[in-house]
Amino acid sequence: MTVSGNLRKMNSNLVNGLAHYTLNLEKEGVPMNDFLGKELFFHFQNQINCVKCGRKTNKSFNSGYCYPCFRDAPENSPCVIRPEKCRAHLGEGRDMEWEKKNHLTEQYVYLSLTSSVKVGVTRNNQIPVRWIDQGAESGILLAKTPNRYEAGVIEAELKKHMSDKTSWQRMLKGESPDEVDLKHEKQKAFELFPEDSKMFYLKDQNEITQIEYPLNEVPVKVKSQKFDKFPQIGGTLTGIKGQYLIFDNQNVLNVRSMAGYLVELKA
């Protein structure tokens, strides 16, 4: 099989507890779980196109944007990283139509177990995709808010006491804490809620989502490769976790970070 196109973040879904991935190369959807244990190679075609406007760019910003779109597009607003900075509920934003669809909708605050217990925020239709994208082993819903700002207020307070980041190396090597009880962590987190945010707590939703990944083996060491330095990346696919493809040479490719790169895939 040989297909080509500009990379995009892999789509994912959960089927009977196992994460399934589809690689997006323009209109070609490649079911990546089918290639576990098989050889595949990506060949960079020396071209990057902005994932927003499509223009050619010599450098990619924030996983696939040309500089003008990085500077101006609503997808790159500061509140995407810092939800507590969102002002859409006040009628302010780079693109209010985009804000209505993405930030003025119900949002979840959650806890997930990746390299550690972390807190995060996502739209109500992004569970469990958000957890799969970050390589979480499990996740639990903590609060549901009417907009991104209210979710950000909760997250900002919890970040004072727990991480909101994932160590990708530890995540890929399966180095998460043992015997973590997310229900107990949820109860502890509620005690840290700002008083005005306690109304959003999901007291009766305590289901824990467990996630397994297509892994023939867990890597002992991992080395991330990018097309800027390695025009060919690949080998025998030994696993997929988060947005990472893991090869038998212990090299890994973060597909999301290479969005917009034009590649040819041979498998």
Query: What would you call the structural class?
Result: alpha+beta
Radius of gyration: 19 Å
Total DSSP helices: 7
Total strands? 14
Give start-end ranges of low-pLDDT stretches.
none
List the secondary-structure elements in sequence, H or E: EEEEEHHHEEHEHHHEEEEEE
User: How many discrete structural domains?
Assistant: 2
User: Judging from the principal axes of the Cα atoms, what is the shape?
Assistant: globular
In this structure, how is the largest beta sheet organized?
7 strands, mixed
Helical residue percent band = 10-25%
Measure the end-to-end span: 5 Å
- Proportion in β-strands: 25-35%
Strand order of the largest sheet: 1-14-5-11-12-13-10
Mean pLDDT: 95
Written description of the protein model:
The protein has helices at 67-72, 78-81, 96-102, 129-133, 148-158, 168-172, 182-190; strands spanning 2-6, 11-15, 18-25, 28-31, 39-48, 107-113, 117-123, 138-145, 209-210, 223-224, 232-241, 244-247, 251-254, 261-266. With 267 residues, it is an alpha+beta fold. The protein has two domains: 2-66 and 214-266, no CATH class; 72-210, no CATH class. The termini are close together. The model has no long low-confidence stretch (mean pLDDT 95).
Task: Give the gist of this structure.
This protein has helices spanning 67-72, 78-81, 96-102, 129-133, 148-158, 168-172, 182-190, and strands at 2-6, 11-15, 18-25, 28-31, 39-48, 107-113, 117-123, 138-145, 209-210, 223-224, 232-241, 244-247, 251-254, 261-266. By secondary structure, it is α+β, with helices and mostly antiparallel strands. The termini are close together.
